[in-house]
Every structure is written in C-alpha cells, then in structure tokens.
Design goal:
Strand 1 (72-75) and strand 2 form a beta hairpin. Helix content is 32%, strand content 28%. The longest helix has 15 residues, at 19-33. The strands form three sheets. Strands 4-5-6-9-8-7 form a six-stranded antiparallel β-sheet. The protein has a two-stranded antiparallel sheet with strand order 1-2. The chain is built from nine helices and ten strands. 24% of the residues are buried. The protein has 264 residues and is α+β, with helices and mostly antiparallel strands.
C-alpha cells in the first residue's frame, strides 16, 4: 500500500507541472541526452512533440521561452537550433570575464565608457573599508560576446596599489592582467552577491535592449592574499548572454565532475 500511495503522489505532482514547463525541461533533456552542441538542429515540430510527449501548444510556448533566454535559436525558413554556449561564472572560482568568455568558445571584447580616478563614493568606501573620499580608479565598460553587448561592468579599484593605471587601454587589456603584470597585485576569490534588477533607460540603451528588461546584478568585492581591499565591482548582465553555476565545492575549489557538466 505504501508503494501505491507513493506512486499516486508522484503522478499527482507531475500532473500539477504546467505543460509549458514540462516541455521546457523536455527540450533541455533532449539536447543533453543526444549530446547536441551549439548550432545543431532540433527535430521538426511534429517529431519533437512525439519524442517529448507534449502538445504542439506546449512545445511552441517552451521554444519561445528558451529562445528568449538564448538557449535556442529559431531561423526563419530553416528550423530551430541549439543556441551558442554562454559564458559561465562559477561562484567558487576566480576568473575574469575575458577568461570565462573564451572558455565558452566565444570571442570577448570591451568598449570603455569611463576610465578615471575619482573620490570613492560612500557605498564603495564602505564596502572596501577605506576612508570616504579616498582615490579609486573607476572603470566602466560594456562587455561584449562575439561583438554583441552582454553586460555593463563598473569597477572601482583601490588607487593606492595602482597609481597611473588610468593610462592603460582597457578596451584591449584585462584589468586583472594589468594589476598582476604591472603592479604585482594578485586578486584572490572574494565575495559575490547576485540579484535580479531591471535596466533603466540609459543601461538598456547601452546593452541594446528595452528599458526595464531584467538583468543579473552582480556585486563583487575582491581583496589580495594579504586581505588588502583591491576592487569593488557592480555588473549588470543579460540573462540571455551569461550563466551562473554553483559547483558544490568549497571556495576556490573546482568541481570534481568537470566544467563540461556545469555548462549543460
């Protein structure tokens, strides 16, 4: 009897899952099960519905949802394809944007909005534990993936450790590389907070999307191995262009199951 009740409970739980959500998970399962890669074509609608056991209405709703998140692409007159891989931020790892984009097999680039030495805003000074008004290097960049805007990143770097850094060309250079190679400043894994925000009109214009579009808001504080405050950074990232993952390990430890598993 216990087994029968468990099975009945499971069936009821499944029946309460909206058809679109079941279709979304079905599409993701199909891509994983058959080892499809970016650019691979998905089955025609009728065949796909039969393979997943869902209605055409549910499948179409799922395709629309997955297209908006960048997981798949619809090509007019051609069909539906697996979308390009997204750069992945693993919370336990320290890696810069350039590295994460290249690791996904994409091409990173940047467009500098501001690069200047300013007095630390109160919230930045508080986060970094430095006196309000201390000099910080403010670097605001639009980050691109394959030439398409993906995020707005505004970093404030403790100027005490990098005087003269404003003369560097951060449209082509990595901030962390410059800190290491020019100033012998090594950033260790810090503290990150990720939430959901809505883009204002100016932010949306920089990213080429509609105002009030949702975005990840990542707030990061980084220090060096001696605990000295190095950087406070705020990034607004388009969910269709970027992903996050938790590898289940301790801070600074890479996953035992491998990066490829996290990318699925």
């Amino acid at each position: 009897m216990a087994v029968e009740r468990s099975a009945t409970s499971s069936s009821l739980s499944m029946s309460r899952v909206p058809p679109r959500d079941r279709a979304v998970e079905g599409v993701r399962w199909y891509i994983w099960e058959y080892g499809l890669k970016a650019g691979d074509k998905l089955p025609p609608e009728r065949e796909f519905c039969e393979a997943l056991g869902v209605s055409r209405t549910a499948l179409r709703a799922a395709i629309t949802r997955l297209e908006s998140s960048g997981d798949i692409e619809r090509r007019h007159g051609s069909g539906t394809y697996v979308g390009p891989s997204k750069p992945l931020c693993v919370f336990q790892e320290t890696c810069n944007y350039t590295y994460s984009v290249r690791r996904a097999g994409r091409v990173p680039s940047s467009r500098v909005v501001r690069a200047q030495v300013v007095a630390a805003p109160p919230e930045v000074a508080d986060e970094m534990g430095i006196p309000e008004g201390s000099q910080v290097f403010e670097l605001c960049r639009i980050r691109l993936v394959d030439s398409s805007p993906a995020s707005i990143e505004t970093a404030h770097v403790n100027y005490e450790f990098c005087a003269g850094i404003e003369s560097c060309d951060f449209a082509t250079q990595s901030l962390y590389d410059v800190l290491e190679e020019t100033y012998d400043v090594h950033v260790r894994h810090g503290v990150e907070r990720v939430s959901i925000a809505r883009l204002n009109a100016d932010e949306a214009a920089l990213l080429g999307v509609e105002a009030s579009s949702p975005a990840y808001c990542q707030r990061t504080f980084e220090s060096d191995p001696d605990g000295r405050p190095i950087e406070c950074c705020t990034a607004l990232l388009l969910p269709s262009k970027y992903r996050y993952a938790d590898n289940g390990e301790k801070c600074g430890v890479q996953t035992k199951v491998g990066f490829e598993w996290l990318m699925r």
